[in-house]
Amino acid sequence: MTGFPLQRPRRRRRTAALRRLAREHALAPDDLIAPLFVVHGSGVAREVPSMPGVFQLSVDAMLDREVDRLRALGIGAVILFGIPARKDEIGSENFAPDGIVQRALRRLRERHPDLLLVTDVCCCEYTSHGHCGVVKDGAVDNDATLELLGRVAKSHAAAGADVVAPSGMMDGMVRAIRTALDGAGYRDCAILSYAVKYASAFYGPFREAAESAPAFGDRRQYQMDPANLREALLEAALDEAEGADFLMVKPALAYLDVVRAVRERTALPLVAYNVSGEYAMVKAAARQGWLDERRVVLEALIGMRRAGADAIITYHAADAAAWLAEGGVG
User: Would you name the residues annotated as active-site residues?
Assistant: First the structure.
């Protein structure tokens, strides 16, 4: 048949201009949230060995310089993780008025009034045992932890947080935090729930960065089994019903089916967390010359957007924003 086939999708791929015209999904710096690790001290910019290019930063010119760099690249949101000066059984610095995250919030709010400030609300970085809540008889006590999470969220809101992000996978955490925030007059502080957080092997480098490895056992009693999908939908639905403003799926790359499934069942904005192990693998392979870092990172991030993520927390944020400014994803 003359001219067969009539439909030739390759026509739309012939030039860069045609590919841009036909592109179905976009990735922009505004879609990215940069994680920052803040520590006590002065003049500290300590690179995390397992995460090249990621630093623990003191709340002074070191933090200022990094945030100024992110803003110049068009990134408008950060999520803060704190490493305390001292740890104890309940993680007291987590909700202290002069805690490390609270100090960082006040500094950033003053310097960058329009920067979206998100805070991780958990206990693992702050507790002497490294678990995500109050430990009783060798296990995390869910209900005793809820009161602590409310105190942490209130202290973050008071210091300037726009969004608090509970990550401990405690049942009822969103309702407890919403009740605490509203009761203290912080009704406009939003909640980004780590609604779907798996007990993943991809978190190892983060635990080095945040100094948060558990002193005993593991977190499978409260984080999700990687084999489960229907449970993810239940967790997301429960957190939405409790008042979450945003939902998260963590990790991202090995769980894009979960991102898609949650996306299809909620109208809430959805965040994917491109976690530390995913970052470290790409960095290690790129340093060996085994892959093209720029192309792999942008391909992975656009895959998360394609799966349904509205925003992505990623340690690649600064590099990705710079690469996007040079010419996009294709």
Answer: 197, 250
